[in-house]
Write a structure and sequence with these properties.
seven-stranded mixed sheet, about 20% strand
Length: about 190
């Protein structure tokens, strides 16, 4: 796949998002493998996408750029940033015109995910980037895996933090791919 095409196609949107991040008074997580996330949505012709962890909203932006083509919906779980009074900046880089395709749940995953599952049963793409603890990941992976349709793409950021992703894939007998991106590791598989 031509990943440069994504950057060329959305140059203006990405430059505006970058400017918004720079003007933001608080620091959160920056952009990850946006191309990977965008093309996972394109590959599956995604209608319903689930992500955990939003921060500035870079992954949300990549997903929404794809979903808008099919009038799909992004369901996001993101815990409030109470300590740094940064709640108002969650999803800050997402342009207003894309927010109509987005449902943001502002709770910890253990509270958000059951609420999201009441609204939609199956997902085409899942992007995990929230609770980095071993048990937090294992709980979420199991909850979400059973709600992915066959052919869905599962993406988990920062898998080098602990062995949760590897243990999950081994337990479920999943053949996975690990992608290195900016010195971090991302786990990706297609549900069979």
């Amino acid at each position: 796949m031509d990943t440069d095409n994504f950057r060329n196609l959305y140059t203006d949107v990405l430059e505006k998002a970058d400017s918004k991040e720079k003007e933001c008074p608080i620091k959160m997580g920056g952009p990850g493998a946006l191309e990977l996330i965008y093309y996972a949505c394109e590959f599956t012709k995604a209608q319903n996408v689930l992500e955990t962890g939003v921060a500035y909203g870079w992954s949300s932006l990549a997903i929404l750029l794809s979903l808008q083509k099919r009038n799909g919906t992004l369901y996001s779980s993101d815990m409030p940033y109470l300590a740094q009074d940064g709640d108002q900046y969650v999803g800050y880089v997402v342009p207003e015109n894309l927010k109509k395709y987005w449902k943001l749940f502002r709770f910890a995953d253990r509270e958000s995910l059951p609420k999201i599952f009441k609204e939609v049963s199956f997902f085409d793409v899942f992007h995990y980037d929230s609770d980095k603890s071993y048990y937090g990941r294992m709980w979420a992976y199991h909850q979400i895996y059973k709600r992915l349709r066959p052919g869905a793409v599962f993406i988990s950021d920062d898998i080098g933090d602990n062995s949760a992703y590897q243990d999950f894939c081994n337990k479920m007998n999943i053949s996975t791919t690990v992608v290195e991106y900016s010195g971090k590791y991302i786990g990706v598989f297609i549900k069979q």
